[in-house]
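Good morning N.,

You mentioned wanting to compare the apo and holo forms, so I went ahead and generated the holo version with zinc ion. This is what I fed in:
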Amino acid sequence: MDKLLETDIINHVKSIYDYMQVYIKNYKPEKWYKSQLEFKIKKDKEINGKAWCDNDIDHIEINSGVIDLYYDYFSKILEQDKNTILKILINKELEDDELKEMSYEGIIYKKGIPIIYDSKLVDDSKAKLLEIFVSRFIVTHEIGHILNGHCKLLASKSQKETHFIPMYYTANSGSMSSQEALDRRTMEMDADAFATTQSMLHVLYLYSDFDRQVKIKMMEPKDIFYWWAFAIRSHFLVCQDRFVDNRFHKKMTHLPSNARWIMILTTALDLLPQYNITDQEKKCFREKIIQGATEAEIKFNNIKFTKYDVFNEIAENKDFETYRSEVNYHWERMKSLLLEYSRLPLFNES
Ligand SMILES: [Zn+2]
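and this is what came out, ligand included:
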């Protein structure tokens, strides 16, 4: 695994956690206690990770396989785009193998200033940016489980000191009752909503301080919204393809990946009108988000020879509406149980 990327992820996680501590002190001072985050990237190829609380130590563990999987995927996608451009430039039929080591240079103008770029370097920083979006999303989702009280509520219910929340869909939720599974699905939805809210704030921040924070040539500040949606949509496509979790059923702890994505997309688009930005920016970011998500699907289908089409999958599925309403309705009940354990204001907390 790329050492720089690993350090980058660790720093991101630390800053999110520190930021949340300040937030708790300001908004829920009565809920704040001195705590520490132990974040670990475990050398393990399996696609998983977990979160748990152990008294005043909060733990998040993510397997290196998760990070490698997405980084490799994004590199592959960008390489394919580069090969398409090279084929046009060279105007000669070449195999992808022959194109692998080649890159192209170009010039773009930013505010009238010419900037020379090398596609290889641009693609590598883009793959890292996409990977950062995904890993930040995954980790923030886990921080949501910790700070919104999910881990401690589950630990108290199971009467164990600690309770692990697995990062991904697990096939062996069979021993769980339908009621427990509904509780878990509802908390998963809450963690997704938390991660979406926080990552949209991060994207806005990158947009406003683009030149210092992003520094990718050939990218304009508004494109950051496109790439965010591209990254997160890709994450859920990779999950859907891997776990084949299309079916809705009463014992599921996570909603299917496509349903989760639609709910995340809706949350992201609903957040835009609330930001202190111009109407033109709101409209533009909305378009960028939808475009990024759509193109992520097209690219995924091209590379994997699949036919994913989230709107068709969801539109044809009556279960989606039933399960979505069920978790939304159940949130009221979960919220009352979580109040004792949450350190942050909960969604719709009156
Ligand atoms: Zn989760």
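The mean pLDDT is 87.

Happy to go through it together on a call whenever suits you.

Best,
F.
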